[in-house]
Design goal:
Elements (H helix, E strand, L loop, with lengths): L1 H9 L1 H27 L1 H29 L3 H23 L10 H6 L5 E4 L3 E2 L7 H16 L5 E3 L1 H5 L8 H8 L3 E10 L2 E10 L4 E11 L3 H15 L17 H14 L5 H17 L4 H16 L5 H18 L4 H13 L4 H14 L4 H13 L3 H14 L4 H13 L3 H14 L4 H13 L3 H14 L4 H14 L2 H12 L9 H10 L3 H13 L20 H10 L12
Parallel strand pairs: 1-3, 1-4, 2-4
Antiparallel strand pairs: 4-5, 5-6
Helix pairs in contact: 2-3, 2-4, 3-4, 6-9, 6-10, 10-11, 11-12, 12-13, 12-14, 13-14, 14-15, 14-16, 15-16, 16-17, 16-18, 17-18, 18-19, 19-20, 20-21, 20-22, 21-22, 22-23, 22-24, 24-25
């Protein structure tokens, strides 16, 4: 009784009661506000953390009340402390994070197309990290099925897969990808059997619209993709003009596995080793099943990429690429990847941007939600001098895949050709943030600074490119052209000589050699190398409308070359259009 009386006298009991009342009431009010503003998913952690906060603070508050013997003042201190905890929590959870746009995610999603979706990479539940390629491959194949549905905006693979393994709220993912719905799931593979679980979520309301689990054999995963796509069509009330195509592309399980492994390497980036690994697996897939149309189409794209990125001599890979795409189209003329692959060959191997444009438009018709057709179309239109139309196509690529480096690269190329260097530099710097140790991007940034007349910045980025990509002839030639443009003739000729010395062992771009000679003022030599570029199918021929060739526009041999190629790159070309 003496202790109870002493607790009462010191105000400890009243302080405890006040503390509990404010803690409970403040928590309920705050949770109610969070649920209203950010949904139930965000409110759960708030309740947990506040409980921890108040429990930890209770002994401290009681100790102060007892030792200070402050009576009413102690109770006021305790109450103020509890209220401060509530307010701090409110500020932490309600005020947007600096990385979050000012407008609340819920409000952002109201204005987003309700017929839009992102497919997050399905989680590998097989207990074996080596099977990640399989779960991601299933996700990507499903994404490709959805991309064929007219009226449905589908965030492409690069953007959706950016969030693999990251603990980011679905609402934030949806806002960044500008989609209303999220499809997520998991894949568990045991031998020939696979369990696929998928769920569709409305990111605005955080409600699960639909979920399902499928137990099938591996090859039947394609049928599952069709069932999932059909369910999504029903949930989003889309009107289908044509039935969903998601049948088995192969009856050979090993070929299917090789195909998914090839996709895994192809989507890693533009590095030589990744493309060579992808080609190896696609070749094995087509050897195991010569009737596997998709594998033939992607084998063609891989071969063409090896040539266009100058990893291998185009003459050595383009014939094989053409053979593969011909087989793919003979097997399935309604395959968008095959038409895109043919478009790139017509641009790279035939230098016929009109035929390429037609094939890329066919790819878009077959899969309006797939960026691959729009990306190719942008380059075909650039080659044809239709830069404003090319920019519109490139903007469409960006809408479909805002986190893909190539969506920004296409825009940067067009701005460079339009002599709009500030806009182009902005895109390239963002690309560099995404891939900070990429020598090609560092050299590309340096090119923009040279064009803007910013010498110090150009030289600094050039030094970084040389450090990251030592011995790369493409980088050496880009830097040689920049030094020539800046008046550093000796350094330009030194780098040019280093690159030329590798012509016997590597493919060294004749088109980039021509740029160096153009900036050195040796126009006949430059045009000679442009004719070599045509003979060797150098993809730099796409870029005859680069500002680097402005000094050649009226040269008779350059005009003749443009006429032969049927490209509007001579003096009469209108750079604005």
């Amino acid at each position: 009784m003496d202790i109870l009386e002493e607790l009462t006298r010191r105000g400890v009991i009243r302080a405890a009661a006040m503390y509990v009342a404010i803690a409970w009431g403040g928590t309920e009010i705050l949770v109610f506000l969070i649920e209203a503003l950010q949904g139930e998913q965000a409110a759960g952690p708030v309740r947990k953390y506040l409980a921890i906060l108040f429990i930890a603070g209770f002994p401290v508050a009681m100790y102060l009340a007892w030792t200070r013997d402050l009576g009413m003042r102690a109770r006021r201190v305790v109450a103020a402390g509890a209220m401060a905890a509530v307010l701090v929590a409110l500020l932490i959870w309600v005020i947007p994070n600096p990385s979050t746009p000012p407008d609340k995610i819920a409000l952002q999603l109201v204005d987003i197309n309700p017929k839009s979706i992102a497919v997050l990479p399905f989680v590998n539940m097989s207990g074996d990290d080596d099977n990640t390629y399989f779960s991601h491959g299933i996700s990507e194949e499903l994404l490709n099925v959805l991309a064929r549905i007219p009226g449905l905006k589908v965030s492409s693979r690069t953007s959706s897969f950016h969030f693999a393994g990251l603990d980011v709220p679905l609402g934030e993912i949806a806002a960044k990808l500008a989609v209303r719905h999220i499809l997520e799931g998991s894949v568990r593979r045991i031998g020939n059997n696979v369990r696929i679980t998928a769920q569709l979520i409305d990111a605005q309301t955080d409600k699960h619209l639909w979920s399902e689990t499928y137990d099938r054999e591996v090859l039947d995963s394609f049928a599952v993709q069709g069932e999932i796509a059909t369910q999504i069509v029903d949930e989003l009330q889309l009107n289908l003009v044509n039935p969903i195509r998601a049948g088995r592309p192969t009856e050979n399980e090993e070929a299917f596995d090789k195909y998914l492994r090839g996709w895994h390497f192809m989507r890693q980036g533009w590095g030589r080793d990744d493309f060579l690994s992808a080609r190896k697996f696609f070749r094995e897939a087509t050897d195991l099943d010569p009737g596997f149309a998709q594998a033939h189409a992607l084998l063609s794209l891989t071969e063409t990429s090896l040539g266009n990125f100058r990893h291998l001599a185009p003459k050595d890979v383009f014939p094989a690429a053409y053979e593969s795409v011909s087989i793919a189209l003979a097997l399935d003329d309604a395959l968008e990847e095959a038409h895109a692959a043919l478009g790139w060959l017509q641009l790279s191997y035939e230098f016929d941007w009109r035929k390429a444009e037609s094939e890329f438009r066919r790819a878009i018709e077959l899969a309006p939600g797939n960026f691959i057709g729009y990306n190719g179309l942008s380059f075909a239109l650039q080659t044809g001098g239709r830069l404003d139309e090319a920019l519109a196509a490139s903007n469409r690529v960006f809408e479909l895949d805002p986190m893909m480096v190539w969506s920004r690269n296409g825009q940067a190329e067009i701005y460079f050709k339009k002599h709009e260097y500030d806009a182009g530099l902005e895109q390239v710097l963002i690309m560099l943030e995404m891939q900070p140790d990429d020598a090609l991007l560092l050299a590309w940034v340096a090119s923009f600074y040279v064009a803007k007349g910013m010498r110090a910045e150009a030289l600094e980025y050039g030094r970084q490119a040389a450090r990251v990509g030592p011995g790369d002839p493409t980088i050496e030639l880009m830097l040689a052209g920049q030094h020539a443009q800046l008046g550093n003739e000796a350094e330009a000729r030194k780098l040019l000589e280093q690159a030329m010395a590798q012509r016997d062992s590597k493919f060294v771009s004749p088109g980039t050699i021509a740029i160096v000679y153009t900036h050195l003022g040796e126009y006949d030599e430059a045009i000679d190398w442009l004719y070599v570029a045509v003979d060797e199918f150098d993809s730099f021929i796409f870029n005859l409308n680069y500002p680097d060739f402005d000094a050649l526009r009226s040269e008779p041999r350059f005009v003749e070359l443009c006429d032969q190629l049927r490209m509007p790159c001579a003096a009469t070309w209108n750079k604005g259009g």
